[in-house]
Amino acid sequence: MFDNRFKPQARNLLIKGARPVGFAQPGLPPVLDVLVSADGAILDVAADIAADTAKLVEAKGAFISPGWTDLHAHVWYGGTDISIRPEQGGAPRGVTTIVDAGSAGEANFHGLREFIIEPARENIYAFLNLGSIGLVACNRVTELQDMRSIDIDRTIAVIKENRDIIVGLKVRASAVISGGWDLVPLKLAKKLSRVLDLPVMVHVGEPPPLYDDVLGLLTEGDIVTHCFNGKQGGSIIEDEDLYKLAEDAAKRGIILDVGHGGASFSFDVGKAALERGLLPNTISTDLHNRSLDTSVWDMATTMSKLLSLGMGMEDVIIASSTAPKRAINKPADNLLAKGKPAEFTIFDLEQGDLVVTDSQGARSTLHQTFEPRYAILGAEAVTAHRHQPIAAGEPGHKCPSCGWKS
User: Fold this and answer.
1) pTM
2) CA 226 → CA 68, 198, 203, distances in Å?
3) How many domains in the chain?
4) Is the distance from CB of 197 to CB of 220 less than 8 angstroms?
5) Range of 184's domain?
6) 354 and which of 61, 209, 366, 403 could share a cystine (Cβ 3.0–4.6 Å)?
7) Is 105 among the domain residues?
8) What backbone phi and psi angles, to 5 degrees, belong to 306?
9) Where does Zn(2+) 2 bind (predicted)?
10) Considering the domain boundaries, does residue 347 fall inside one?
């Protein structure tokens, strides 16, 4: 069954001259054409397909990968004070699937679904926040003060009613959120995850609880987001015991997610981990309105940062496409097979210098950047490009592909 968010188009779509990467699908031509039906299904993949009457997308040797999937973003625009519109980090940026990471709790999930997820061009899923109010007033009004913040019965009911959209539970395990409540919220989330057979995504940050203790509670399929944060007491490179716990967690099948954000990614931590062979399983932005024009920008720039720190190009693509899909139990194999829904990103890897920062303000110069050209959603080809950030106080600019004024 095809995702009903692929908007039906009147004509077939033909992608010509693209180089496949990240599919792990044997027998693909080094340069290929992809024919997509008007209803979004792949009709043919071959070295050369006649254009006929199909709409034509000329890749001109650009790469084609499974659609970029941002495992951690915040898109409950209007429902929280931190969220952006999906199109600000979605298809016009090359991202075909977005996972909202706990913007909504049980009390306001219905609005996220009706007003954001269902109308969106992109595929959007959600981790439901353990706290009933979610991130309504993020870091100003905590969603996890004490047990009055959590309604277990209603949380279970909302998840059961929205299994097609809700892919897990989100809990922020950090002193700035839960004060001295320590591990109790995570323990509750883990209990619910066992009852509902869903993973937990846990935000790690300022202790308590300790990052060490968080890892000890997680099991295979759970997700640690902000895995390479540089916060005091929460950095895996300032504590050898914690680093070994992180290595052990990865071996146990716990997913290490970048979750860059405005305060949660360090070049030094990422570089040190990569040099020791500890790679993130998934790359995500934690994109929100406080990180959009500061440290994060978009998915392509975040991917480029990991490339610059030593991850291989194909590893970066997998961590940004099929790995996050697997993390939320969505199809991730044989994505170029006939009959499969067409969901791809067409991009270039460009040479040139770009100065960027991490969440601590450390600067780095990227010499290669991922540059999205199209997001393919069914038979729809959305023109894409990297976000162009603006400095505080400067007049906004209008994005030519999504129309959004920064």
Assistant:
1) 0.94
2) 19, 20, 6
3) 1
4) no
5) 68-327
6) 366
7) yes
8) -65, -35
9) 170, 203, 226
10) no
DSSP string, 337-387: STTSB-EEEEEEEEEEEEEEE-TT--EEEEEEEEEEEEEEETTEEEE----
- Residue corresponding to tokens 């095809």: 2
Interval 219-277: pLDDT, tens: 999 999 999 999 988 899 999 999 999 999 999 999 999 999 999 999 999 999 999 99
Strand partners, 364: 356
Residues in a beta bridge with 65: 345
CA atoms of 107 and 144, how far apart (whole Å):
14
Q: Which residues pair with 77 in a beta bridge?
A: 80
Residue 256, number of CB atoms within 10 A of its CB: 23
Strand (E) positions, 67-117? Answer: 68-73, 95-101
Residue 336 lies in a domain: no
Which residues line the annotated binding site? 72, 74, 170, 203, 226, 286
Strands 63-66 and 380-383: unpaired
Q: How many residues does the chain have?
A: 406
213 Cα distance to chain centroid? 25
* pLDDT value at residue 403: 45
CATH classification at residue 190: 3.20.20.140
Binding site as annotated, residues for Zn(2+): 72, 74, 170, 203, 226, 286
